[in-house]
Batch of 2 targets.
Target 1
Amino acid sequence: NKALSANDYFLLQGPPGTGKTSVMLKNLVAKLYNTQDECILLTAFTNRAVDEICSSIKRIIQGIEFIRLGSKENTIHHDVLLQTIAETNEFATLQETISTCRVFVGTLSYLHTNPELFTLKKFTTAIVDEASQILEPMLVGLLANVKRFILIGDEKQLPAVVTQKER
């Protein structure tokens, strides 16, 4: 309830294996989806984490339509993949699907390399899973494009991924 009533941001921290993704994220999406004016963006650092979000939504929440952003090589959820929808439908149908869909799921990398999504959709809430793996600069651009964000993570997750040459 606190996350849902937050005006701008909320931090959800909990120990590993306590259901932050499978229970809390799922329940947040369900409640937000039932509010007609919400457009939800779900993201994480890795494709595996994004696929876990998709699996949670499919497994537990019936009737929520969502679009998985990314490429066929990086996901197991081809049925809801934007690329698949684009390849199997006429442009008008694709355009209608994007405009009426209220839940989008993708990696931060995808969102950074495809900023046109933010010209097509205005997101009211972004939920970032496994947030402790992400450096703050990677979040700034995303968070500037949403009204409210919820960061989910735990202190036992892998640290932020940084690539640096040895000296």
Target 2
Amino acid sequence: AHLHKRLLSSPAAFRVSIDNRLNAIRRQAALDLGDQAARDAADATTDQVFTEDDELDAAHLTARVDLPHNAELARLNTIKDLAAKVTAAKDPKLAELLRLLPERMDAHPKARRVLVFTKFKDTLDYLEKNLTRAVGKAKGLPDGTRVFTIYGDMNLAHRNATFAEFEAPEQAVLVATDCISEGVNLQRACAELIHYELPWNPNRIE
């Protein structure tokens, strides 16, 4: 389920998870052989791999599957090679977001600001990079659009300062993880909200 969620989020998030799982399998294989260095690495917390925004999915690192290590490694390496071919230019979900954002900005000419929610920090980084690149392009964002991000590793003061910056310009996009939903008045800043992933829990949709 973890890899499925990450795949549906973005190709970047999926690739990170594949790499993390490959590394975990290699560490486990070394542990089985009694490698002390690998034991030390395995004792490290998952905080080095996951942010607070997706730590609940960290269990996949140590999950056991009904495959020998070599078989799972071969399968994951095949998937990794296929995933590498899904570049941003070939990502239909990103293309749809770039098509939708100018349309939603135009719907609110007095406050052309849109908030985009994502579950994963890796997807946030992917969106920040590609939305910034798309500013002023024919199939991108209107010229002058500013792109901001807020995520769990930022302290409260930094989050509030970034949110204030987002409110200032005439047109802007803020990409944020769920951390921003706590104690921040989003309604005054923008009239448009886009969820980049459909929440798997129906209660979250409500």
